[in-house]
Amino acid sequence: MEKRKPMNILRMKKMKQEGIPLTVITAYDYPSAKLAEEAGVDAILVGDSLGNVVLGYDSTLPVTLEDMIYHSRAVARAVTTTFVVADMPFMTYHGSVDTALSNIGRLMREGGCKAVKMEGGAEIAPVVEACVKAGVPVMGHLGLTPQSVNQIGGYLVQGKTPEQAEKLLADAKALEKAGAFAVVLELVTDETAAKITEELSIPTIGIGAGNRCDGQVLVFHDALQYSSGERPKKFVKTYANVGDQIRSGLSQYVEEVKARQFPAEENTFHGERETVGSLYGSSKE
Ligand SMILES: Nc1nc(=O)c2c([nH]1)NC[C@@H]1CN(c3ccc(C(=O)N[C@@H](CCC(=O)O)C(=O)O)cc3)CN21
Ligand SMILES: CC(C)C(=O)C(=O)O
Ligand SMILES: [Mg+2]
Question: How many structural domains are present in the chain?
Fold first, then answer.
């Protein structure tokens, strides 16, 4: 395989200037991260969406710092050139800046990621600034911010009215000013996302935010339909149907064991007669 240079935040900013789209996919474990790197993604996001797609919660709120560290470590072990960003979980960066920094430090040190992502705009600028001072690259996240779902009132498209669009742009600029190296725009109208993308010098990474962002991100399990027959969301394209493949492979396994077709002779070990004889103290003695 072609040798790739490690991805970093300077290259990502340069890609924006050159108009080269950034490709990001989430991953939460070693084999998926390996496959994502082999497929050539620029960055992996260890998203707190792991709460939904891996742990079976109905939101991202129950995900803990320990969960994020555990999954980030597995991803970090898998990659050599891919940039790894990990989500800061719900309520781990909203107390004092000191507490936030101590949590962020744990995710970087123990989770082995290269950057952290945080949801929010101007209100988190002080934490973003403190991170950047400490050498931690920060990715922002605006629009639909799932950790605030109870305040937003649902997983709704953002930036529809001129006032909402203005607020999003102001928040994006606040994040850029605070030193964020990129910003995710989630479930934002095409027009608003394009405007923000144009106004910022740092890359925008869209999910359900149209085709004019500087890059795109999707949840691994959505892109590959690695689930038990959920209805795909409007902003998702299904590139493979891993769920069907897993179900059919496993049902064949069940059938073959029931029919005593598996394990076959080629999957079976045999010892020397003497070994078996002495083990069971049989007639030979
Ligand atoms: N599997 C998965 N994929 C995600 O993209 C994702 C998660 N989980 N968990 C965390 C957040 C939550 N997200 C969500 C969840 C639901 C919708 C949703 O129901 N969207 C509707 C459109 C809503 C509207 O029209 O306003 C859709 O049909 O796409 C969108 C994003 C995005 N994130
Ligand atoms: C959807 C992306 C942007 C995310 O935050 C996640 O996967 O948790
Ligand atoms: Mg997230």
Answer: 2
242-253: per-residue pLDDT in tens?
999 999 999 999
Same domain (yes/no): 168, 197 = yes
Residues with CB under 5 A from ligand 3 (ion): 47-48, 87
Say yes or no to pLDDT of 285 above 70: no
Whose Cα sits closest to atom 7 in ligand 2? 47
Annotated binding site for 3-methyl-2-oxobutanoate: 48-49, 87, 117
Model confidence over 46-85: pLDDT tens digits?
999 999 999 999 999 999 999 999 999 999 999 999 999 9
- Using CA atoms, how far residue 101 sits from 34, 83, 118, 132, in Å, is 29, 21, 12, 11
Kindly state whether residues 22 and 142 are assigned to the same domain.
yes
Same domain? For 139 and 197 the reply is: yes
Kindly state whether residue 137 falls inside one of the protein's structural domains. Answer: yes
Mean pLDDT of the 169-182 span:
98
**Is residue 203 located within the same domain as residue 268?**
no
Q: How far is Cα 23 from Cα 34, in angstroms, rounded to an integer?
A: 15
CATH number at residue 64: 3.20.20.60
Residues with C-beta less than 6 Å from any ligand 1 atom: 49, 52-53, 60, 144, 146, 155-157, 187, 219, 221-222, 233-235
Q: What is this structure's pTM?
A: 0.94
Q: Which ligand is nearest to the CA of 90?
A: 3
> Average pLDDT of the chain?
95
For residue 1, is it within any domain? no
Cβ neighbours for 147, distance < 8 A, ≥ 6 positions apart: 48, 60, 61, 89, 90, 91, 119
Render 115-148 in DSSP notation, one character per residue.
EEEEEBSGGGHHHHHHHHHTT--EEEEEES-GGG
| Same-domain status, 163 and 115 | yes
ipTM: 0.93
Q: Which domain holds residue 254?
A: 246-280
